Amino acid sequence: MKSSRHLSDFEPTSEPHKKSPAVSRTVQAQLGLRLRQFYESLALGEQPVPDRFVELIDRLTEGLSEKAQP
Description:
This protein has 70 residues and is mainly alpha-helical. It has one domain (17-68). The protein contains two helices and no strands. The longest helix has 19 residues, at 25-43. The chain is flat. This is Anti-sigma factor NepR domain-containing protein. Pfam families: NepR (PF18557). It comes from Microvirga terricola. Residues 1-25 are annotated as: Disordered.
């Protein structure tokens, strides 16, 4: 049976009753490096921004403009 995992299961914490990160520091560093490379390629226009990112940004912008209106 598969256990359900939540994002909080993977967050480092200093609280003694919490689990340690599920991935090693080396894996975390590699993931960070790959993400930075991906975002840099987006910023330089080497790759198009994924449609899902555009949708999320649009939704956030709409939500912010609705909050700004009296």
